[in-house]
Design goal:
Helices cover 0% and strands 40% of the residues. The chain has strands spanning 15-21, 26-30, 39-43, 46-47, 53-54, 60-67, 72-78, 111-116, 120-125, 130-135, 141-146, 153-154, 159-160, 163-164, 170-176, 181-182, 192-195, 202-208, 215-220, 232-238, 246-247, 249-256, 270-271, 275-276, 285-286, 304-311, 322-332.
């Protein structure tokens, strides 16, 4: 560094050269030392490829083919160095190797990669929306860790062994008419078994007359994973007859907690859209899913929910009895299981 004024800059890299005049068919050359993978070998001024020599023990360079007498073999060994706290502008490309962090990250890092023996690869970040975001090659979010949380949001679907992983969300419970009972006041008919044709499906139905609103009730203890929010419902029904008139259904509910009076009013009734019957006797009819039903009370885990269903004769035109086969309840979960 002759003529350099000031402190010797760090980091710095150096190279060591060893030059040899080969004897006939010589293959091994003892150098002053090198770091494996940080060495270049020249034969008569021509750079050899990695396949043309072996340099693994830190001292010897061994040619794949013996040199001729008086060939000049030159070995250039490069020293390694450490870059500390450097700032780079633009893309940084590592060719022919890997990036190997050796330290942990810290809470104040905006975007950091680290490694520890216990934790393995570590990614740490700080953002106004997410701390860490993983994107695909279309620059679309795939995985997000919201800022300051331990939650993970997966934007797409999750599979395991090629099959979709079930996640919290919309679920359903089917309640057959056989699990319902007529209300004491303004009841529908008692449960009836209807034979269509011998040894074909029999129906277990509750009949709701056309003259006035009839009612039936049932109970559900929702799973703990239920988010205790609104629900919707979808009736399954038929008519033994050929009238094309419509049928509409209403549902109301109330949640009762342990040590709380069951003598509590149902919530607001919510109706399905009236659906016209097909005119073919005993055809299965599936009404459209209703709007949101708010369950009265303050629903909580382990509550018993009481429901009341009725035919809304003021909103339909079917002249025959509507035969309820069952309903499907839709609810939303916010946990993976009931633990």
């Amino acid at each position: 560094m002759s003529g350099y004024i000031g402190i010797l800059p760090v980091p710095q890299a150096t190279e060591t050269r060893n030059s040899f005049t080969a004897t006939s068919n010589q293959t091994s050359f003892a150098t002053d030392g090198y770091t494996p993978n940080f060495v270049s070998v020249y034969l008569n001024g021509v750079l050899l490829s990695a396949a043309d020599f072996t340099a693994t023990n830190g001292t010897d360079v061994v040619l794949a083919s013996g040199a001729a007498a008086d060939d000049v073999v030159e070995v250039i060994a490069f020293s390694t160095f450490t870059v500390s706290s450097q700032t780079f502008t633009g893309d940084v490309t590592a060719s022919g190797g890997t990036f190997l962090p050796t330290g942990d990250t810290s809470a104040g890092d905006d975007a950091a990669m680290g490694y520890t023996a216990a934790e393995g690869l570590i990614l740490t970040g700080q953002g106004s929306t997410n701390d860490v975001t993983i994107k695909n090659d279309a620059d679309a979010d795939v995985l997000e860790i919201p800022t300051g949380t331990t939650n993970v949001a997966v934007v797409g679907g999750i599979t395991s062994g090629g099959a979709a992983v079930k996640v919290a969300g919309k679920e359903s419970i089917y309640v057959p008419a056989a699990a319902m009972y007529p209300s004491t006041t303004n009841p529908c008919s008692d449960l009836t078994q209807v034979e269509t044709t011998a040894l074909r499906p029999d129906l277990k139905v509750l009949d709701f007359a056309a003259a006035a609103d009839d009612f039936a009730q049932f109970t559900i203890a929702f799973p703990k994973s239920w988010n205790e929010g609104t629900i919707t419902f979808q009736p399954f029904w038929t008519v033994t007859g050929t009238d094309s008139g419509t049928v509409a259904w209403q549902l109301a509910g109330v949640a009762i907690t342990s040590d709380e009076s069951i003598n509590t009013a149902f919530g607001t009734q919510v109706a399905t859209t009236a659906l016209a019957f097909s005119t073919t006797s005993n055809d299965l009819m599936v009404s459209a899913e209703s709007g949101a039903v708010t369950i009265a009370g303050s629903p909580a885990a382990n509550d018993m929910c009481f429901f009341q269903i009725n035919r809304d004769t003021s909103a339909d035109s079917q002249t025959g009895a509507a035969r309820l086969i069952g309903i499907k309840l839709f609810f939303t979960t916010d946990a993976a299981n009931d633990a």
